[in-house]
Amino acid sequence: EPIRDAAILECGNCIIDNCIAQERKILRKKAQIMEIIFKSFEL
């Protein structure tokens, strides 16, 4: 039983890590878009 519980915990951590990675990816994308907008205003 403990082995199975550990596997479930691992899986949960993996899901959380994936969510965080997705969030960061989205934030990075938004930052890039903002940068492009600012640069176009500077011209």
Q: How would you sum up this structure, described in words?
A:
The protein has 43 residues and is mainly α. It has one domain. The chain is 95% helix and 0% strand.
Would you count the extended β strands for me? 0
| Strand percent estimate | under 5%
State the order of secondary-structure elements, H for helix, E for strand.
Answer: H
What would you call the shape? rod-shaped
What would you say about this model in short?
The protein has one helix spanning 2-42. It is mainly α. It has one domain (1-43).
Topology readout:
Layout: H1 2-42
Could you list some keywords that capture this structure?
single chain, 1 helix
